[in-house]
Amino acid sequence: MADEDTKLFDQCRICIVCSNDLPLETAEQLATVIGEYGGEPSIHESSPEKEDTLECTHIVANNTHFHTYDLARKTLIPVVKPSWVHNSLAKRKVANPRQHSPDPRLFLSDVVVTCGDIPEGDKDAIIGGVVAKGGLYSPRITGMVTHLVDLTVESDKARLVQAKKLRVKIVLPHWFDDCLKLGQRIDERPYTLPDPEILRPGLDAPIRSNENKDLAGASTPEPSIMPTPPSIPRTGDQSSVFAGKSIMLSRDLGIGSHMLESIEAVLKQGGATITSKVEDADWLICRFREGFVYRTASRLEKIVGNLAWLYHLMTFNTWTRPLTKLLHYPVSRTPIPGFEGLKISLSNYVGEARIYLENLVAAAGAECTKTLKQENTHLITAHGNSEKCSAAREWGLQVVNHLWLEDSYAAWKLQPVSNPRYNHFPPRTNLGDIAGQKMLDIDVLERNFFSTQAMEEPSSPPRAMRAKDQNTESMQPPAEKPRKETEKVSETAEGTPQAKTKTTRRAADNKQAQTPARSRLIPDDKENETPSSTSSRKSKDAAAARLHEIAPDIALYEKEMKRVGGVIYGGRRKSDEDRVSINLKKRRSAEPQEESDGEQASDAKRQKKSRPPISMHLLITGYQKWVGKGNEKKEDADKRHLRDLGIMVVQDARRCTHLAAPSILRTAKFVNALAYAPVIMSTDFVDNCLSQDELLDPKDFPLVDKTAESKFHMSLAKSLGNAKKNKNKLLRGFRVYCVEDIRGGYEAFKSIVEANGGECLLFRGRLALNNTSRREESDDEDEEMQDDEPGRNEAFLLSGAERKHARLWPRFRQLAGDVKRTPRIVRVDWLLDMAMSQELRAADEYELDESSIEDADE
């Protein structure tokens, strides 16, 4: 064995995740091989922890069900199937992880295709589509080829496959075309030569349907029968999926005490503990996407699933993420916007697939009808051959496949039925076979159901928080009696401010009787019980109240940590307008007031009604009146004044609709905002709005700075026009690396690159360069990258001319060559000039070499 071969995985720390498809014995064999070739393997029977995930360079898994998969995806750690290890050994170099990804979006990742006697145009389209969706192309027949695309079995390659009896499927080009149109891999049997079913006469014959194993235990969000798993390991056995987990069962599950005891017994038998405090729980099992406990658990990144998911784990004793199946995650009480009033019927779906779609229609907020009538709005069908399909088309109803429903549910947005993906029905294929493969997106869930933006902007809370909350839960154990004081604080934490004064117990009881929403929280048999006045009860009340009070601050703090500069340099002050709206209400409610509760509540209502809606989100940079020590109070007062005029001052360029600056600047705010093509005006606009106490027209205060335009070789008007055309995709396909201690800061340049659609990574010269970009992983079929696009085959390093930076240049050139990319070491002006002009510029005039070091040192 050559020395270079023994060091194949020399710089790799590889986590191997076991599952049903990757048993422990196979994992141990892989670990042995990886260790022999210089790697550092580690085996995890369920899922690697957060720390282990961040420390590894690759994760070997046969699926994406382990709970740190989202973390790996966000931190760009490749997740690969075991075939990646074998392929790397066969090639004697580390293989491209993208062709071995278990990500369901890359649905052709295990396909290696070669083409026979087909037209060149079709050949190029097939190769491009296969590679874009994770597959590989081979120009000739090899042992790795899985599919041969041909029109007949008389070609040379087809004869070779038949003569040597290779395990290669010979398929028509139509199979790839239909797979790419649907965005899903379908059964290739109807397209297989020599006798493809799609070319036989009698296409109207009944189409067979196969058992859909993906929907086992995932067809309903509210199972009525508890499974009786015979193989749940005993307590302390690490092979149990529940071992060592702390699980909270929410009160909104709506199950009886006997069933609850049975579930708890199974969980404890598997080694889990039951808790009633969300901060102590690893998993939260609940029914709805609402309530303080749900939002707190989600913001603290706990595992949140529903009863169906829990039963699935009990049945199979194998870990799977709740986000993997649409109905394994809690549902919403309110419908998807646009689904109200829709009447949907199903056709040609059978078995679990039909049950799954019926429940998904109900979860989306529409009505599912067993019969098709003219009053229906949609027909979801698995293929186009049925009486229902013919009748629906005659009546002018929308005829779509189930992908429309799944995509709408996952995006929580009504998808247009005009998308060809939703009305494509491949011949002789039952689409019920691929139902249930769509996954939920955590970013969509956060934006719609537990985003901290709801507290930052009380005037526009998320739709889920606007809904009336019916499963507010006290943080006390179920056995304890609910207390009015705790309920009062809990309701305040849910977003309903309450004026709290020192009142007598009689006044408090009267007020309690006048608040039906709060009285729902008291069990009927304990309605007249008086709260305990002992010191222990008071301390528990205070602790619960404190927890409710600080939970929003914790969530805001975690969000601020993600800002450029962190909490200290990039966060909000307590006096910021969008921050003060949360806690000032609580502080006021905690202090004695001379006014009565009713007077204060009415004053708050009048003040809220008098405030105008937000008409613009304004990003301000370089405003000298707010710069300098001692101007914080003026800045806070001005922001509140602007908000009273309908102007919300924001700090994030992604949220701004308008930008105000004294001149054209190269600040991070200005450069980032340009990518979003906002309305740009002078800070004179801010001065005049404040002095005249009215919202003025931004067009009367244009930003004119010819000096800066000449200096930066750009035109502001032209840059805005380019930005509108680019749509944040100027640097699409560019991979930009940045030295760690670059002047201006890595985070600032990272935000600029990502605002323009590129990818920015920190380069320390230690590990191999990542050969998979987020752009390549995109599942946007209308925007696939081409090999000749700028930046496609180049790797850029932002660097200074300092000697300490130059020490990294040879290593960068070497690593870029290893992944077959042209190395480009450039000054930061290259990035800034492109971002300012919104035009691509050649890197040649910005490149650094060894001669630049001498000039800098002199």
UniProtKB/TrEMBL annotation:
InterPro entries to which the protein is assigned, alphabetical: BRCT_dom, BRCT_dom_sf, CellCycle_DNARepair_Reg
Start and end residues of each stretch annotated as Disordered: 191-237, 452-544, 579-614, 773-792
Any Pfam family hit: PTCB-BRCT
Superkingdom of origin: Eukaryota
Positions of the BRCT domain: 4-102, 102-193, 339-422, 608-703
Cross-referenced PROSITE patterns: BRCT (PS50172)
Biased composition (Basic and acidic residues): 480-491
Gene Ontology biological-process entries: DNA double-strand break attachment to nuclear envelope; double-strand break repair
One annotated Gene Ontology cellular component of this protein: nucleus
Name this polypeptide is given: BRCT domain-containing protein
Stretches with biased composition (Acidic residues): 778-788
SUPFAM superfamilies: BRCT domain (SSF52113)
